[in-house]
Write a structure and sequence with these properties.
By secondary structure, this protein is an alpha+beta fold. The chain has 25 helices and five strands. The radius of gyration is 24 Å and the shape is globular.
């Protein structure tokens, strides 16, 4: 196994840290690389194909180890849900951990249900390598800016600011559950934000412009170091070149240098203080590094420059919500709702802050108005969850939640498994989020058995940290303290940004866990792994679509691409002794993606891609 790992590392050096230690091929007697000095901090690694390594290790083997096919959705089998939770997933992009970017004309997220999306691989629509690199770094900032719902509720990108819809929200029920439409909107917003940066004024210095173009050429070549050098030269000869400062920040972010990235964004604002876009990039980055005070200060500065900008109120109000500064958030959301009386999500945000401010009657009035404007399942789910959070009108919340689940499960039954569309891959994220909402309502009602029956499958399939925290609370209320502590630790591993889970873990510090227990990260991957009989003696892998139905059994499996030797392995998957937990009365049919890998060392396994990753693939 050690030799196999060394072989893969040598052939995939672009995925390793920029200071890789030398590794030796098996049995060549090369001395081991020295261990890190005591106290040496390990390098954080982001496994992403678009982040090049500065140093390549010579490939000393003739046969290539392929962990995943070139078009596979992920390189890593574990993904954090630093931006995941309970509102509807409206985006094909994380993940979490990675996710799509909002437009400048729209805030970090377009609506509350978009506050719940895991980071994941970028979609293939991003075009050139340079655009992918820029999007990757921008996405990382925007994902990390998931603060307000993000850290308490983590609602479906539960991110940096409250949702905002610039488009008309009077949608039909059918439109409300069309993930393809939502994904298109998210891609449009990301493209608009990127284009807004690119449309910032150019430098009047031809040499600075040439340096910027050289940087872009280096980006295409995946040479971050050269791109940074060129952009540093561009801003050194024209310090007012705001666009180049932002691009430099993106490159620093892609290289993992958060401090330098932040400094570049600050200088982008200072370079041209009357431009709107640099303030937004800086505010998102402050939220990304969890500096909410500075993020608030930046949005307030922008508010002075551009008081009518549609992004200010949702993001500023969302940050106040994250800090539980409800009176300040209330003022902002009241003004926003008054200015957009036909915006259902503006009404819902107002209802939410009123409920959390203990103004129950006024809060429910706004929630009912939101449902009048948009009676679709997204709004039903979102309103139901907020009512559960406020512990109010739980019977009414239960009805809304059940209606939302019924609609989206009926949609899942119409999926054509022989012609799977990207929108079909959104449905499992949506359904599991709705199951979590219903389970949480049952928990609030004291029906722990029903709560567990919905929260368990929601957690098992989506592995959202918030869902794990919810399930842990059920176990704790049931006095299953060992199970509760174990679940809290898994939840925190899935999403280290959860704010309340660490205190729950500390409260159970005296509870003993089994001595021989799998590491949390390993267990999360194990939950998505199906052990299969040996299908081949050679190393091979292939991607498959699988259809989960009838209580979570693999009903059908379709070969997508990969090794021909595994082309006929679909029947083996269909006969596998594997079942995902589904709620007892669920009629859902869920399409999932996974990779079947066989090795002469480890045998054959099928690993499901995380839902958010699969939802972003074509």
């Amino acid at each position: 196994m050690n030799g196999l790992a060394a072989k893969w590392a040598a052939q995939n050096s672009q995925l390793l840290p920029i200071d890789p230690r030398p590794v030796a091929p098996p049995l060549n007697r090369t001395p081991k690389a020295p261990a890190p000095e005591e106290g040496e901090k390990p390098v954080d690694v982001q496994l992403a194909a678009d982040i090049p390594a500065a140093v390549a290790v010579e490939d000393q083997w003739s046969n290539k180890i392929e962990i995943a096919p070139e078009n596979s959705a992920v390189l890593s089998q574990t993904v954090s849900d630093s931006t995941v939770s309970n509102y509807t997933v409206s985006n094909p992009a994380v993940s979490n951990p990675a996710v799509s970017s909002p437009a400048v004309s729209s805030p970090v997220v377009s609506r509350l249900e978009e506050l719940k999306t895991e980071p994941a691989a970028l979609s293939q629509e991003d075009g050139s390598p340079r655009r992918r690199i820029l999007f990757l770094t921008l996405v990382a900032i925007l994902v990390g800016s998931s603060v307000w719902y993000g850290l308490h509720r983590q609602s479906q990108l539960r991110a940096g600011g409250a949702g905002h819809r610039s488009e008309n929200t009077n949608r039909s029920s059918t439109d409300a559950i069309n993930p393809e439409t939502k994904g298109s909107r998210r891609a449009d917003r990301r493209n608009q934000l990127h284009e807004s940066v690119m449309q910032l004024p150019s430098s009047s210095n031809p040499e600075a412009l040439r340096a910027e173009e050289n940087a872009r050429t280096s980006m295409v070549a995946r040479d971050n170091a050269s791109a940074i050098t060129a952009l540093k030269y561009a801003v050194s000869i024209d310090p007012t070149f705001s666009r180049a400062w932002i691009e430099l920040g993106w490159m620093y972010s892609a290289s993992g240098d958060k401090n330098s990235a932040l400094s570049a964004y600050q200088k982008a604002v200072g370079a041209d203080p009357n431009q709107v876009v640099p303030y937004k990039i800086l505010a998102y980055d402050y939220a990304f590094i969890a500096n909410r005070d500075e993020a608030i200060a930046t949005w307030k500065k922008l508010q002075i420059i551009a008081p009518d900008d549609p992004d200010v109120a949702p993001n500023l109000g969302g940050l106040y919500m994250a800090q539980k500064r409800y009176p300040e958030a209330l003022g902002i959301f009241e003004s926003a709702a008054k200015g957009a009386p036909s915006d259902a999500f503006a009404q819902m945000r107002l209802g939410m802050v009123r409920l959390r401010s203990r103004k129950t009657a006024e809060g429910m009035q706004a929630m009912h108005k939101a449902l009048q404007l948009d009676p679709g399942p997204e709004m039903l789910n979102d309103v139901a969850y907020e009512m559960a959070e406020a512990d109010t009108n739980l019977s009414e919340a239960l009805d809304y939640s059940m209606r939302s689940i019924k609609e989206v499960e009926e949609q899942s039954q119409r999926v054509d498994f022989q012609n799977v569309q990207q929108a079909d891959l959104q449905i499992p994220l949506t359904i599991t989020s709705y199951w979590d909402t219903l389970g949480w309502i049952y928990f609030k009602m004291g029906d722990l058995a029903r709560a567990e029956s919905y929260l368990t499958p929601a957690w098992q399939l989506q592995q959202s940290g918030l869902m794990g925290d919810h399930l842990g609370q059920v176990y704790e209320r049931q006095k299953k303290l060992t199970a509760a502590l174990h679940m809290y630790k898994l939840a925190f591993e899935a999403n280290p940004r959860l704010e309340e889970t660490p205190s729950r873990i500390r409260n159970l510090a005296n509870v003993s866990l089994p001595e021989k227990q799998m590491e949390a990260r390993e267990e999360l991957t194990s939950m998505r792994t199906v052990r299969l009989p040996d299908l081949t003696k050679t190393d091979a892998n292939a991607d498959f679509d699988v259809l989960l139905a009838v209580s979570g059994k693999i009903e059908k499996a379709n070969f997508l691409h990969g090794s021909d030797v595994l082309r006929g392995a679909g029947k083996t998957l269909e006969n596998a002794k594997f079942e995902e937990p589904f709620p007892p009365t669920s009629t859902a049919r869920l399409v999932r993606k996974g990779i079947l890998s066989c090795s002469s060392y480890t045998g054959c396994n099928f690993v499901f891609y995380p839902l958010s990753v699969a939802a972003r693939t074509n």
